[in-house]
Amino acid sequence: MGTFPKGFLWGAATSSYQVEGNNNNCDWWEWEKKTNHEQSGAACRHYELYEQDFDLAKELGHNAHRFSIGWSRVEPQEGVFSESEIEHYRRVIRALKERGLEPVVTLHHFTNPLWLVKLGGWEKNKVQDYFLRYVKKIVDALSQDVRFWITINEPLIYVSHCYIMGVWPPQEKSTWKAKQVENNLLKSHIKAYNLIHGIYRNKNIPSVFVSFAKNMQAFVPYNNSWLNKLAVYLRNKFFNFEFVEQAINKSSLDFIGINYYSRSLVNAKNPGFHDLFLRTANDENIKKNSLGWDIYPQGLYDLLVKLKKFKLPVMISENGICTSDDNLRWEYIREHLKSLAQAMSEGVEVWGYLYWSLLDNFEWDKGFGPRFGLIEVDYQNYKRNVRGSARKLAEVCRTGVVIEPPINNGTN
Ligand code: IFM
Known about the structure:
The protein is of the alpha/beta class. The protein has 14 helices and 12 strands. About 45% of the residues lie in helices and about 15% in strands. The protein binds 5-hydroxymethyl-3,4-dihydroxypiperidine (IFM). The site of 5-hydroxymethyl-3,4-dihydroxypiperidine has 7 residues, from loops.
């Protein structure tokens, strides 16, 4: 059994491009057209249907919701802001608050306005100024109603997919560019952190909490060789913790937002770069999501315990599974919540749990196939259907208690 305190934030997360639809002024839209990938098109039509979606979130016992602002919507041309799009997001936030859902607002979730890309995107240091101008405009406009800001979603996933593996736009494979981009993401976060706090101070708004959503994986050695132990140490350092440490060194995190999904089975055989940082093994005996990622709830506990040394509260800004088996979805959620409760009982301060995702949605280069939603979306008619796992999670949101399933010993 696991228990959670009163006031704990329960909810789900989405991002603009993955659910809103017709986000046609950004790099992903162009890239889908150019390449042979499934197109996001109308996505879930959440841009129009958000009120109905938030009604469902409320009905499911949520008291928080994470979503992102589409930068290309609110700043369609360089330095030109669209007041009507900003008004849209004001309405979104109002709709959340009317339903008792605390908004957690992400400012950058993978997509970029086309004008920014033409100016060199995240490779050029100037992006820091562009990002700050956008952040200032949005935070000024929305500060009265928002306490939680996530500056950047999964900075190192952005770097690795776009600039190392080259599978997302702009499909670069350059370590040098990757380093530039990472540096710009970190500096932009630090500057945005200071800017947001400054805005709240000037307006005498007492509380604001700023972080990024850092993707973290559990790195587990395939065997106990010294090389594997070294590889686990290095991957933890460079993929999980270094970015967080750098932000903390600049006093620019109020809490640590973590996105946790899976483990990576580390299998280094030679002391070279590839083996130490990338080589993995496949364990066919572990349950997997529909994209083949290992399901490993223990990893969430392990990471949370490691984060204790930073002495900062944590928010689970994403945790979820894509699967066509809704029983497996519930098992995934339940076991991760038990890990979370265990870490909390050992002194890790956790503010909230946001499931990825409220709705089935557009999973980037994997298209609409993977189903992550608490709510199923029928893409023929955009009808929503609440899944059983969502109702079970709703019980936990209401009671703050996760109950062990009865042991089935074969007698019943
Ligand atoms: O869909 C993504 C999301 O955009 C960022 N975090 C991981 C999710 C599942 O892959």
